[in-house]
């Protein structure tokens, strides 16, 4: 079968599932932490479907949402990679160890 004709449908379905999961987790975390305000930032905040879903659900739940303008929703991965490159390029730069803690301190 020729799957190329279904690429748009597959991508749309994938986007919808990701939006479902992210919005569920966002509002679950807000509920568990009794938050009346939430912020959506970074590259993911540029996704219009996610923005619309979160705004609609937040209105239903009386939660304030803060989302920057789309042009300000950059992905920090390139900046993190550039910083890592500079550290690695410097022979005296900081180095991590395998046993270093790399986990978020956020408790949900």
What features would you highlight for this structure?
108 residues; mainly alpha; 49% helix; two-stranded parallel ribbon
How would you explain this protein's 3D organization?
The protein is mainly α and 108 residues long. It has three helices and two strands; from the N terminus they run αβαβα. The chain has helices at 7-32, 48-61, 77-89, and strands at 37-39, 64-66. It has a two-stranded parallel sheet with strand order 1-2. Helix 2 links the parallel strand 1 (37-39) and strand 2 (64-66).
Name the strands of the widest sheet in spatial order: 1-2
Mean pLDDT: 88
| Number of contiguous helices | 3
Give the end-to-end Cα distance, rounded to a whole number of Å. 44 Å
| DSSP summary, beta strand count | 2
Radius of gyration: 19 Å
Question: Secondary-structure element sequence?
Answer: HEHEH
Category by helix and strand content: mainly alpha
Indicate the low-confidence ranges by residue numbers: none
Beta percentage is: 5-15%
Helix content: 40-55%
- Large-scale geometry: extended
Task: Give a short account of the largest sheet.
Answer: 2 strands, parallel
List the helices and strands and how they pair.
Layout: H1 7-32, E1 37-39, H2 48-61, E2 64-66, H3 77-89
Parallel strand pairs: 1-2
In short:
The protein has 108 residues and is mainly alpha-helical. The protein has helices spanning 7-32, 48-61, 77-89; strands at 37-39, 64-66.
């Amino acid at each position: 079968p020729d799957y190329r004709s279904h690429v748009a449908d597959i991508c749309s379905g994938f986007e919808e599932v990701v939006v479902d999961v992210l919005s569920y987790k966002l509002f679950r975390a807000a509920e568990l932490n009794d938050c009346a305000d939430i912020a959506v930032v970074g590259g993911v905040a540029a996704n219009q479907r996610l923005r619309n879903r979160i705004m609609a659900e937040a209105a239903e739940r009386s939660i304030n949402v803060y989302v920057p303008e789309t042009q300000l929703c950059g992905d920090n991965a390139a900046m993190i990679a550039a910083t890592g490159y500079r550290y690695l390029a410097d022979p005296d730069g900081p180095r991590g160890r395998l046993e270093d803690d790399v986990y978020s301190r956020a408790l949900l």
